[in-house]
Amino acid sequence: MLLRIDPTSAEPLFAQLSAQVRGAVLSGDLAPGARLPAARTLAASLDINLHTVLRAYQDLRDEGLLELRRGRGAVVAERGTTDLAPVHDAVAALVAAARTAGLAPDTTLGLVKAALTSQEAR
């Protein structure tokens, strides 16, 4: 898996890394048990600070997507037999509806984040 960052983006570097790994895990491109590059190696290859990579890995660990094992590094966690097909279908429907309505991607994301936040508050 090739990870890339955009140092000119307003999105923090750790968030860019987290999003790429999260997407690869959820799409199945990274299978449970797959090892990610060592934090030092990844930081050196992307020419970023080690702590940036560690923050991304820790955030993914906190979400339950990665296991951080001393001496083994970051490993994709076993997520069981979670079938994400219904979520993918719902996202595809949302994207189609947003495009039909002429919504900008940031507006659509804002609506989704607001809906998720309001669901958490209940």
In short:
With 122 residues, the protein is mainly α. The protein has helices spanning 13-27, 39-46, 50-62, 85-101, 105-121, and strands at residues 66-69, 73-76.
Topology, pairings included?
Blueprint: H1 13-27, H2 39-46, H3 50-62, E1 66-69, E2 73-76, H4 85-101, H5 105-121
Helix pairs in contact: 1-3, 2-3
Can you offer a commentary on this structure?
This protein has helices at 13-27, 39-46, 50-62, 85-101, 105-121, and strands spanning 66-69, 73-76. Helix 1 (13-27) packs across helix 3 (50-62). The model has no long low-confidence stretch (mean pLDDT 89). The longest helix is centred in the last third of the chain and has 17 residues, at 85-101. The chain is mainly alpha-helical and 122 residues long. It is built from five helices and two strands. A hairpin with a 3-residue loop joins strand 1 and strand 2. A two-stranded antiparallel ribbon has the order 1-2.
Using brief descriptors, characterize the structure shown.
122 residues, mainly alpha, two-stranded antiparallel ribbon, 5 helices, 2 strands
Radius of gyration: 16 Å
State mean pLDDT (0 to 100 scale). 89
Number of helices: 5
Q: What level of helicity do the residues show? A: 55-70%
The count of β-strands is 2
